[in-house]
Structures are given as structure tokens and as C-alpha cells.
Amino acid sequence: MRDFYPPIEPFAAGHLDVGDGQQIYWEQSGNPAGKPAIFVHGGPGGGTAPAQRRFFNPDAYRIILFDQRGCGKSTPHIADGADLSVNTTDHLISDMEKLRAEFSIERWQVFGGSWGSTLGLAYAQRHPERVTELVLRGIFLLRRSEIDWYYNGGAANIYPDLWEGYLEPIPADDREGDLVEAYHRLLTGSDRTAATRAAVAWTTWEKSTSYLLPQAQDDDGSESDRYALAFAGIENHYFQNRGFLDEGQLLTDAHLIKDIPGVIVQGRYDVVCPARSAWDLHRAWPIADLHIVDDAGHASFEVGIRHHLIEATDRFAGLAAAEKGH
């Protein structure tokens, strides 16, 4: 079973001015002369964490992590009043292109899960000539049905106990309507105590339902109110605006990536991003290999999920299993 590569430290890090008053945090680790790969984090609003470097062989890859607008170490942070009007999918795609140009990279592998799969697909469909491969996990196509399933009551049939915590900040009169809209009013309202309470409840719902079985929390800094405000505030902003995508756009435009090799890794019991979306993507993009992990949920750190992700990055770097010692 493939497991994480050892922890490594960045060999370079900094911020890139991408306009609109935004400074995007980036870091590079691994081999400066290696195969370029960009890690696209989830959320949106999740930010990056050191463990995410470990999906890549540091001898073979030039590993690039970055925090998307408004979260992580990028500035301004949403907790400090970042302007969400300049935080859209088009802005994030443009930021990725600016990073690529800044690092003088011609083409790179795009690796992302959950929202990272959404943005990774959107980027690849806009710039297919810049992508060597796609490695995607926990597919989220940002269709209305997916949002309604997870945020408007479908997943409550599986986690009714945890759903109570998700509902708790919402006034009783608002619980029969669109709960994403109800949360939007709380997260953007003038009562910052109520906004923080809502942000923590929204974030806790996702963290608590991401694994097939309860696990110790990932080392992602997600215990703080500041993290929750970014995670919930930016996610809700994107979901209110349907990801700034047309309904079904990522499937409709799948022909644009028909020649890009890819791997899709999906937990069979992923409640956050159910396997239907991974199946639909695979049907629209048949060149990609699909691995459905029968004993996993949503999280990238589950054993079967990470096995297939690392297997994919090894394969695309030309590494045989024997070379890795597994």
C-alpha cells in the first residue's frame, strides 16, 4: 500500500501580487529541477498544509502549493475584510496562470481534491495546453444537485445527529428555505459574533463528515475561528454564486481535456461529494482512470485514497513501485 513520502520543507516561499490588492502565498518544495506539479487545495477557503507536499516524491517533483485568495497565508484574509467581489473562479484561474508564468513553467501537473477538483478542471479546460496530467480526488462539479445534497438536507439522512449542529445557528423561521442562503445572511451580516458562530458550525459539519470513520483531525490549522471564517465565508460565497460556472459546465466542456491523461480517485462512501459526480466525469472524460475506494469517504488522508493518489503521482513521474520500496 502506497503511503506518504517523508515530511519536507520548502526550498522557497513568498507572495505574488496578482492585482486587485491580492497577495497570493506560494511555496515550492522537492526538486527544483523536477517535474512541476501544482497542488490545488479544497474549500474554497481551505488553504494549504505541510502534509499536502507528501503526495509527491520530493526527488522527482517540483511541488508548488499556494493559498487561494482570502485564505491561508494569502492577504488580505477574509477575517481581515478581504473583498470577495474579486474572488471568483476566473480570478483563481488567472492567479494560477500568473504563478506558472512567475516560475517560468511551461506545463505542469494539476492535483486537486473536492473544490480543488473543481478548480483544477476549470483551469485545465481553460488552459489545456498548460496541463501535463490531472490527478483529482473527491469530485465536485458544483451542480445544484450536489449543493442541495450536502447543504440542504440530503446528507442529513446519513448524519442526522451532526445535522443538528449545522442547523443550530440558523433561526427557526429560516430552516425551511435554502440553507446556503440562510448561512449567507449570517456570514455576511453585521453581527460578527453570529457570523463566527455560523462559520464554526458550517466548518464543523464538513470536517465531521469527511471520513468514513471518525479520525483525529488533520494538521490543517482548522481549529481556529479565523480558519472557519475563511472556509465557511469563501465556500458560501462561491456556492451562492454556483461557483461562477454555468450549470453542468465542467461536464459540457470535458471534451476540452479529452487528450489530457488523468486519474480520478473517489471514496465509495463520500458523503460530501458523492461518487455520482466522479462517475459522470469519468463517462465524459474516459481517458482518465477511475479508482473507487470501497472503504473510504471524502478525505484525501484516508489510507485507500492516498494510496491511489500517490500511485498516480509516482506513475506520472515515471516511478515504478519497486523504486519507492512499497
What can you tell me about this protein's structure?
By secondary structure, this protein is an alpha/beta fold. Helices cover 36% and strands 16% of the residues. The chain has helices at 89-102, 115-126, 144-151, 160-167, 179-187, 192-208, 225-240, 249-252, 275-284, 303-316, 321-324; strands at residues 12-19, 22-30, 35-40, 61-66, 108-113, 131-137, 262-267, 289-293. The chain has an eight-stranded mixed β-sheet with strand order 1-2-4-3-5-6-7-8, with helices on both faces. Helix 4 runs antiparallel to helix 6 and helix 6 crosses helix 7 (225-240). The termini are close together. The model is unreliable at 218-222 and 321-326 (pLDDT under 50).
